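Dear H.,

Thanks for agreeing to be a second pair of eyes. The structure we're designing against is below in token form, covering all 310 positions.
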């Protein structure tokens, strides 16, 4: 199990290719495994991970606050999409051939979140939830581009300042008295309304203002519910390994490879979120240990050296 967990760790956590994984095992431990053997180990890991990934999925979809995001993936030479759904219960990954709202509907089933945190991508805004919070990190980046394109326009700078002030206020909520905090929230809400009513020029600025007017009720939800984050950075952090994996390996050759990666990454991301040890979790995933610690590898290396001498 420790050897198989090492294979999974090198491939899915350190993003090594099959060739480099085989070379690392040989150089570090004197263990020779063919690329086909590595593929079999990873396939077993995927099968072992599916039940745990399904449990994490159920915990996530039943959460009150869910954040989601997606990024591109390559599967069998085709464009697919890597989705992630994050809540306090964990992070569920799935790789699907479509970027449509059907993916969210399939993951959520009959469940409905209290609040959904995402960017302004259409299918994300169709997610089943009673309330929404649009990611302010995305809005701040767009406002920064707008202020650089139109430096003479104060509107973008003021909007940036207001959103940053709102985020800062949320960070200071425990330092303020409830009445003082609510007074600041009302002040920010009124300033936001005034900025959205201001007459401005410039195509980029006007487009952003229209977006904010459309999503007015979804901009400051996090100030009224302390369980709701102001952005979906947790999703972007959860997807970052997938982006690295795509760049290093150029994607997945098969659908089972994509399903395996999504299931294993669900376990790894949830383990990291909960502050537990990733490699130990992978060892438990692969089965009961025969020998503990590094004893098994040490004995194997000694045996191999004895065999070489013979």
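And this is the sequence the design step returned. I haven't edited it by hand at all.
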């Amino acid at each position: 199990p420790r050897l198989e967990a090492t294979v999974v760790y090198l491939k899915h956590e350190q993003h090594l290719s099959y060739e480099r994984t085989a070379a690392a095992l040989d150089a570090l431990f004197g263990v020779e495994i063919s690329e086909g053997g590595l593929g079999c180990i990873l396939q077993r890991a995927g099968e072992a991970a599916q039940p745990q990934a399904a449990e994490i999925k159920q915990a996530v979809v039943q959460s009150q606050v869910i954040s989601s995001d997606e990024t591109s993936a390559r599967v069998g030479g085709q464009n697919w999409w890597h989705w992630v759904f994050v809540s306090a219960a964990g992070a569920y990954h799935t790789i699907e051939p479509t970027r449509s709202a059907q993916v969210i509907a399939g993951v959520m089933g009959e469940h409905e979140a209290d609040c959904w945190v995402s960017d302004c991508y259409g299918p994300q805004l169709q997610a089943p939830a009673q309330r929404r919070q649009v990611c302010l990190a995305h809005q701040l980046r767009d406002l920064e581009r707008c202020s650089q394109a139109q430096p003479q326009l104060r509107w973008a700078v003021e909007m940036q300042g207001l959103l940053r002030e709102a985020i800062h206020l949320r960070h200071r909520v425990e330092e303020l008295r409830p009445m003082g905090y609510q007074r600041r929230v009302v002040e920010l809400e009124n300033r936001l309304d005034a900025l959205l009513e201001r007459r401005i020029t410039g195509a980029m600025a006007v487009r952003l203002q229209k977006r904010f007017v459309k999503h007015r009720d979804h901009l400051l939800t996090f100030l009224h519910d302390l369980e709701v984050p102001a952005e979906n950075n947790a999703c972007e952090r959860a997807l970052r390994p997938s982006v690295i994996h795509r760049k290093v390996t150029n994607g997945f050759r098969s659908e089972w490879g994509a399903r395996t990666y999504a299931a294993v990454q669900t376990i790894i991301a949830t383990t990291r979120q909960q502050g537990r040890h990733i490699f130990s979790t992978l060892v438990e995933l692969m089965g009961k240990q025969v020998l503990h610690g590094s004893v098994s590898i040490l004995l194997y290396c000694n045996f191999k050296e004895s065999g070489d001498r013979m």
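Two observations from my side: The two ends are 28 Å apart (CA to CA). Strands lie at 65-75, 78-87, 90-96, 113-118, 129-134.

Warmly,
E.
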